[in-house]
Amino acid sequence: MVDDFGLLPALLFITFFFFYYYCYFIHHCSCEKKSPTKMSFFEMVKNKERILEWTTELVLASPTNTITMPYTVVTSNPKNIEHILKTNFHNYPKGDDFAAIFSELLGHGIINSDGDRWKLQRKAASHEFHSKNLRTIILDKAHNEVADRLVPLLSKAAATGASLDLHDLLQRLAFDVVFQTVSDVDPAWLGCDKEDVVRFIHAYEAVMGVVNLRFNQPWFLWKLQRLLGIGSEGRLKEEIGGVHEFAMRIVKQRKGRKPEELRSSSDFLSRCILDGNSSDEFLRDIIINFMFAGWETMPTAMTWFFWLVSTRPEVEERILDEIDSVRRRHGNPDGKLTLDELREMDYLHAVLSETLRLYPPVSLCPRRCAEDDMLPDGTLVKKGWRVIYNSYAMGMMESIWGEECNEFKPERWLENGVFRPKNPYQFPVFHAGPRTCLGKETAYIQMKVLAASIIERFSFDVAARVEIEFFSILSMKGGLPVSVRRRRGKEVSKVAITI
């Protein structure tokens, strides 16, 4: 550390570190017996490497499904979540500390904004996301990405016996679809490793690694490192330029088009450019915010989906039967699936929702309390405290899902064979209230077309057991290595590969 930082910065860092935690200990740790719902700072430090599993265990054991830690409340209580996300929405913004943590990456984009700035962006984005045009565009791009790039890769693996990391392939596919949707630029990451795209990916991943570290550090520590340009903050300063450069190059390309070309384009960036009220930096932030929102969540959810389905033949067979039934009903035996056809796939929708219930990609969602408040379960929240709702724990609550809450049971979402959504405050995977995810419907479109197109053609052999890995996203540790088998009608070819 001294060699990397220099002697003086290292001494300053260590001095501030111990001073901060000494003060923290004096004010927040006592010898009194703790309530089972109140956790000490030292317990937080002890469990910092397994924060999701630890807080899940605690909120499930709490009578109110809420726990209090130093300056922090964690809850999985649906009434509390409705209070935070809807009833007293204005008292629980993302907060200045959240904005500071993501400032270099997300700038003033919609994900990193509160108040009037957020309202303006939300209004503009809402108009786009609720248009049928956008849904059709996403469906078309997802279809093409699957048919032109993913299917050939999987076919080759089935024929040659090669093993593939399905999570890696799905990440590449999602990246291509997101970028095409927001900017009409095809990075073709699934098709090949372009040098500029690879540089961008490496820079983005490095920046996200530092951002994740910030969440687990006292604010003054990472800000001191940023001021001195040392440690992880020094790396962020080096790498963020690569992220900005790639996004800004797309902005310049789009702005170089003639107005009539922009008007005929269907991407979100072109319409923002035609509006004429946005700076280049803001347009750059739009690209990065859209990518941040849609890139990692969808492939992570679909990795869990394919693992769950591949280990449950009866579920896979029922999905195949539904796809076949919908195709026959519409007289579309092997063509591209339409929006209407996808909407009729209730069982597939239920399987996807059940996957999200058990493995929500964004499992811990933080907010900041603006003024002293009392949650519906009686928990006191002080001004400035962080409030986190744990959607991963909610999937394991008997009070919401019954005694079979830990079982994978898609039927819980169906009523007489028709999909029935749950209360969003009991299933806040797409958030709820005024900040409900605008991309919820388009996410289901992408997931359905990907699931149906792949399951029709291929079957996967996967490991029986996998491990979770949580940073900012609930991922599968080590990805998902798969053996690929090609379907022939209802039969599956015998090209099998051992993991």
Strand content: 5-15%
Major beta sheet summary: 4 strands, mixed
Full CATH superfamily name: Cytochrome P450
- Total domain count: 1
CATH architecture: Orthogonal Bundle
What is the C-alpha radius of gyration, as a whole number of Å? Answer: 24 Å
Which regions contain 5 or more consecutive residues with pLDDT less than 50?
1-35, 490-499
* DSSP strand tally: 14
- The computed structural class is alpha+beta
Per the CATH scheme, the topology name is Cytochrome p450
- The order of strands across the largest sheet is 1-2-7-4
Oligomer designation: single chain
Helix content: 55-70%
Cα-to-Cα separation, first versus last residue? 40 Å
Tertiary shape: globular
* Mean pLDDT reading: 88
